[in-house]
Each structure stands twice: as C-alpha cells, then as structure tokens.
Amino acid sequence: MILWITILIALIILTSAAILYVSKSVYSIAAEIRSNAGIFFHTGKYSRSWRGLSILAVLAVFSLLSLCLHIINAVVVFLHLAVFLILSDLIFYIFRRNLPSGYVKRLSAIAACAATLCALSAGWYLNHNVWRTEYSLTTSKEIEPLRIVMFADSHIGTTFNAAGFEKHLKNMEKDRPDLIIIAGDFVDDSTTKDDMLGSVRALGKIRTKYGIYFAVGNHDKGYYGDLRRGYSLAEMTDEMRRNGITVLTDEISDLPANITVIGRKDLSVERELQGSRYSAAQLRALVPEDRYAIVIDHQPSDFNRLADSRFDLVLGGHTHGGQMFPLNSIGKLTGVLDLVYGYERRGTTDFIVTSGISDWALKFKTGTFSEYTVININRK
Question: Which of 23, 84, 152, 199 has CB 3.0 to 4.6 Å from 54, enough for a Cys bridge?
C-alpha cells in the first residue's frame, strides 16, 4: 500500500509539472508567432493573461483526453509529450543557429508532438494486438510430452469484449494444447456480466486433452463491490465450473501422465484482505515429489520459497510485462516483484511471467507487448 501511495503522489507531481511545461511551450509558441507579427506581450498584464490562457487551454485538452480515454491515459499522453518537448527544446536550442529565425519553438513543438504520436501509436498497437510466445523446457521426471497454453490479465472488456476474446481463443486452440492455464485477472471492475458470461462460455467450447485451469488474480475479486459490475467472484467461478473449467484456490488437481496443477490464492488475499493463503511449503506437501508440479501464482513475488520447495514450473502474470518504458524495470529493482517478464530458472524450478493478452486501464504498452504463451515440456 505504501508503494502505491508513493506512486500516486509521484504521478500527481509529475503530471502537474508536465501540464505546466506544456503550458509554457504553448505560451512560448504564441509569443513567437506574435513577435514575428510585430506584437510583443512579454511584460505586464498581457503576459499574465496569455500565460493564464495557455494553462487553461492545456487543462481543457487534458480534461477532454480524460473523458475520452480515462484520466490515467491522459496522464500518459502528457508525460510523454512533456518529455519529448524537453528533449526537443534542448536539441533545437543547441542547433538554433541553423534553423529559420522565429520558428524554433514551433518546430520544436511539432517534433515533440510527432514523437509522442509515434510512440503512443506504437504503444496502442502493441497493447491491442496479441502475439504468440513459445518456450521449450525439459524435465528429468517421467512425463509424456506436454504442451501448455497459458495466458493472464485478459481484463475482459478493456481492449476486447467477449467476441474478441473468443477470436483469441481460436488462435490458441490452433496450437492443440494439452491444457490451458489462466493465471489470474480474467476480469476486472469494468467487465460487464454479459462479457464475463460470454467469455466463460467461449472457454467452455475449447477442447483440450487435460482441461482448463484457473487461479484467481487480484482484479477478479473486484475492488469496488459486486454491484458495480453486476456479479461476484463466486458467481463467476461457479459459471466457470459449469463450463468445465477447474478453479483452484490453494488446491491441486492431479492429471494423468504424472502431472499435478496447483492453483494458489493471490497475494492480495494477504496484503489487501488481511487473509491467509498456503505457504509454498504447505502447497508442496500436497504433491508427491515424483510428480511434475505446476503452480499457478498470479503475482510473481515468492520465487525463492517456491524454488526452495522444488516445484517444477511456476506460471504468473500481473505485471503486464512492465507496461511502460522505462517503468518496466522498476518492479524488480525495488524488490516488489521477482520477475517482471519472461523466463527465469532458480534451482530446479522454471518460472515464466507473461505480459498478458490485454490490459487494465492503460491503453498503451511501450515497454512490452500483449501475448499468450505456448510452453512445450519434454523429458530429458
């Protein structure tokens, strides 16, 4: 909670600074244009009035973006614009002697807007399209070749609705998975009941050798109460079970071919709900040592204990791959997360964290891309 409060305060400060810097640039452009026309207003009441109008104009644009895209995306746009303006102003200041007189501020602003548009257009594309990422693992345990399709963080209703989700499922089905694993955050507070039901029923149509397994993420339970989205977590998981999906909450499911799937309660049960969940050692005690043990743990934050307990494979999401550059490294650097994205091996345990097939509120991914993963496991 302290981390999130710190992030919120930092965002408020940075956004305020970004709005002021953009406003300053708007004022400078207006001053440049009027100066070229022989009209000067750098002093007195005219200067103050134009500065005030610049701030009001920028705040109006920020408000409009907030209404259209959600306030967090307006923040993203303005932070990118401010950074590119600073860089552009610096570059144009250095080379100002080689530029047309009286056009430096306008050229700098055009360059910054173009860079912002390119960066966020790429971020939009990377977020709203889903790629396939494949891993190949080996084990010394006696198992048959196993193919897993794993995805997380679908947050149904953000970048696609139930119909869009069904299209992504058809692509996953082409890989002929032996089992499908959903590593949390299937829905969130903005997911409508119709989209939830449609998505669950789409999952129920998929045929695999060993079935579909789901572990709850922090957004699945909802942060604003059941009335807001029209259903509870229990109603969703009941619907999943009716459609043949196995929901695991600190529980195991033994599959043929010497494989066990373990679904772990999300870390938010401890951190946000003051509840409890099984420790890694308690989960390990449920599974014989000779079985290939796969843990679904939404938040990648307990790697050392999971590795010490000698699980074979741990699958998670939650991070969205770090989402935005350069923030995609902060989680690991601060120690809040053990892995932001990709593959890591500790001891005899393989860890894979996916960037997810969608997003929560942010509409852009500039530090990663949306994906589902295909994991091939073979005996050595």
Answer: 23
